[in-house]
Amino acid sequence: MNTTTTSTPPTDDYKCSCPCQHLHRSGQEEGNTSLTLEEKIEKIHESMKIDEKTTTKYNSRFFSAQDNRTLSRAIGGFGITVICCVVGGIAAMDMPHLLEAYRISEVVSQKIENFSSLRKIHYSDY
User: Fold this and answer.
1) What is the pLDDT of residue 23?
2) What is the spatial distance between Cα 125 and Cα 119, in angstroms, rounded to a whole number?
3) Domain ranges of the chain
């Protein structure tokens, strides 16, 4: 059994699928035949840039999501209570010192008033 196969040569309609020729042809279509490879890469890179301030990721940094779960509200309330107790405890421990300072300031102001009134009487005698 003797079989022979024949192949047909490529015709003029045959197109090469080589990417190099595709890039060259697309450059000719756009009229950018004089651009170097680096310039083409830079042009593509510039066209793909995105302004960071217009992205959702950038804008979402400024807003926090609301959480309506019962557990998260309970933990938040507990945290506020702990912070208030700590600040209130520090203020309560310092209260005797504040009252004493207030009493001393009242005594000092009374003595200054008494001294001022004595000086007025003393000068009026002359």
Assistant:
1) 55
2) 10
3) 18-48, 97-126
